[in-house]
Amino acid sequence: MNSDSPSNNSSNEKSANAGISRRDVLKTLAIGAAAGSVLQVIPAEAAEYVHELVRAEKGTTPAAKYTPKYFSAHQYATLIFLCDAIIPKDEHSGGAVEAGAPEFIDLLTSENEKFQLRLGGGLFWLDGFTSDRYGSTFLDCTPQQKVETMDLIAYRENARKDHSLSQGVAFFGLLRNMTCDAFYTSKIGIADLQYIGNTSLREFPGCPPLPSET
Amino acid sequence: MPQVTRTPTSYDVCIIGSGAGGGMAAKILTEGGLNVVLLEAGPQVHPEKDFKMLTWPYELAHRGAGVGGHARENFTEFLAPNGAWSIEGEPYTSAPGANFQWFRSRIVGGRTNHWGRIALRFSPIDFKSGSRDGLGDDWPITYEDISPYYDKVESYIGVFGTKENVSSAPDGVFLPPPKPRCTELLVKKACDKLNIICIPSRLAVLTRSINGRQPCHYCGQCGRGCVTGSNFSSSQVLLPPALATGRLTLVTGAMAREITVGSDGKATGVSYIDKATRTEQRVGARAIVVAASACESARLLLNSKSPQFPDGLANSSGTVGKYLTDSVGSDGWGTVPALEKMPPHNHDGVGGMHMYIPWWKFDRQNDFPRGYHIEMGGGREMPAVGMFDTLCHREQGYGALLKQKARQDYGISVGFAGRGEMLPNPDTYCEIDPDVVDQFGIPVLRFHFRWSEYELRQARDMQETFRAIIETMGGTYQSKTRIDGQYPFGILEGGKIIHEVGTARMGADPKTSVLNSYCQAHDVKNVFVTDGAPLVTNPDKNPTLTIMALSWRASEYLLGEAKKGNL
Q: Hey, which end of chain B has fewer CB within 10 Å, N or C?
């Protein structure tokens, strides 16, 4: 089940699981609210307003054209490559780039000095490392050199053997976490995990029988 | 010079703080016919604008991580407006080694907008624990005194649960509980094998419609704030009926600075800073209900110095700010392969646990006094930032394999939170820092805090229990804690559980307590405190339900005194 098929993209307010929109749900809830109660319940127009508000802060639709807020064009291209390597497209779902990971990481980095040092600095470190080792920036390395490099910085054990790798390992660790953040909070990632919920139910159904019990 | 405005109107009662304690007082007092002004330091809450119920993470640019990713290490940005452990312009200080974390919520409804809705009664023994084990003091009231008010609060706010007849966890007036989640069924099975009591939890969430409120729609997001008001908050359930009486004046952005006192030694009103105009204001009242949160209330009393009360108002005992406790908190989690077999299904439920473990070792000798309960979570929750940090750390690498591992790992975690009773100790209290003021010129609190060996042993016991349950479920316990360092046995910093209480405790003896058994100050008869400050002990049960029961009881007493002309 891939809810990110092109047909769904056009109506991106549809929830990934149910066929109803958040607006529909809020409206239904509002209608059900007891009339005449002094308690604070949401009127239908207010529900509409929430919906619009959320739309206004509408996040990261992976756009073809995105101008990075923090990273240089070269760094951003490197970031895109790395995000794609960390969570690639596979037979189940699209990858982290399609899920908006580079935009998400750039946005957060633009607002956080610590990330600027660790990710911005980390991308400089990466180019320095490959320049020393292969004589070119990471992006200009051969596919094999890129894999070699990532295989070195993707495991803490390598830094224990070779201390000169430790900054690279720390950089990659943070980037991996943030790439997962972006991917698994995207429509694609949520569908990949087959999360079902974030909707309104009349009764909570409880636990379905275990496969072995059916 | 800031302008000082004196409001011409005088009220019957001025309440400071609009959370559980202040909101309840506002409802009872206005419905009882009194004219009330309620001062709240924060702004109004607008559920329709402020609550992010049913929003997907990808609908927000920051995906729940907040600006700069700061919410990633703290509360997610999906939470209802809730407050923080640090507020710009409003510092507090810690004595060397204390590192107390003080949570403050500046908004109408206070912490009830986002709290866990865990609504547990204290048990009969909790009111007499001092005389049972010789550690600390008994309450001046018994379970029989408060029980009718627990009934009233539960009937009004709506709490689900089941009659279980467990002595450490008294039954109440309950709505039916929701069905257990898969994770909870597995925990329950393991607990049965281990002879640990595991029962439906008790949460202030409506599983049936009551008092004109809609039942829960099971989106699992109570913490975000509920636009239908199906869970309890002061802002949606207590203040609207108080406002409907026409006798409540709600003043937002009002930071109380001092309770003023007349020559007869009675309180006359409250001086506050109006944040919007940054001016000093004053409101007059015949009685004051302080419900600003335990430490904030202590701060206000200590800052209310006068010739009659040189050490602060209602502080002739010197105990304002003393007897501070928080809950003992230690968390842990594991992975349970049995959950891998579950087909995808809706696991959301209410915004909190459907099952929990009340204190179950009350019938034996333990190597620590008092007890703790265990809350639980995990399973197929809505994916969120940070959810795969541990997986990334464990699996490392990248690419299709990492993605496969995440898919496999999703939904198989079970987490526990132990919440236990801390005993007051002489090294744990708050006082006025002589050197520091906040942006409004109000002297700030300085905290002293220390866990004792009792609490550390309790945290160790929690960790051992978590591990035993996970392993009995056939899982692997993943939390690693040390026996030393900053967090021995995973014990969290004081203040992190946000159950700080005790700083103006009630008692029969005015020499050792601030309030009488009706939350009325011994020294100043028209001052009441109705937040967490009056609590004599801090049993493992989350304090909010008890705060509301005490506030209801104190408010009825205040109404009676008002009718008798005793204010």
A: N
B148, two tokens: 């009718």
- Residue A13, CA distances (Å) to A9, A25, B439 in order: 9, 12, 43
pLDDT digits (tens, 9 = 90+) for B276-290: 999 999 999 999 999
State residue B50's pLDDT score.
86
B405 inside 8 A of chain A by CB:
no
For B135, what's the count of Cα atoms within 13 Å in the CB-facing half-sphere? Answer: 15
Distances (CA, A) of B413 to A178, B337, B390, B391, B435: 20, 9, 11, 11, 47
Put simply, the chain A residues between 128 and 147 with a CB less than 8 A from any chain B CB are none
| CA–CA separation, B30 and B90 (whole Å) | 32
What gap in Å lies between CA A109 and CA A181, rounded to an integer?
14
Assigned token pair, B324:
């501070």
Alpha helical stretches, state H, B336-445: 389-395, 400-409
User: Do B180 and A187 make contact, defined as CB atoms within 8 angstroms?
Assistant: no
> Do residue A200 and residue B235 have CB atoms under 8 angstroms apart?
no
A193:B179 CB<8 A: no
Q: Which residues contact A111 (CB under 8 A, 6 or more apart)?
A: B67, B68, B69
Candidates B23, B231, B25; CA nearest to B110 is B23
Place of tokens 């979570």: B377
Cβ contact B63–A59 (<8 Å): yes
State which residue of chain B sits closest to A152, comparing Cα positions: B397
> Which single residue is written with the structure tokens 């007059």?
B284
Chain A: closest CA distance from residue B465 (Å) = 24
What residues of A are in contact with residue B182 (Cβ under 8 Å)? 207-208, 210
For the entire predicted model, the pTM comes to 0.91
**Residue-range domain boundaries for chain A:** 6-58, 73-193
**Beta-carbon neighbour count of residue B210 at 10 Å?**
14
pLDDT per residue, tens digit, chain A (214 aa), is 333 333 333 333 333 334 455 555 555 555 444 444 455 444 444 444 444 555 554 444 444 579 999 999 999 999 999 999 999 999 999 999 999 999 999 999 999 999 999 999 999 999 999 999 999 999 999 999 999 999 999 999 999 999 999 999 999 999 999 999 999 999 999 999 999 999 999 999 999 987 765 4
Q: How far apart are CA B531 and CA A133, in angstroms?
A: 64
Residues of A in contact with B60 (CB under 8 A): 54, 57, 59
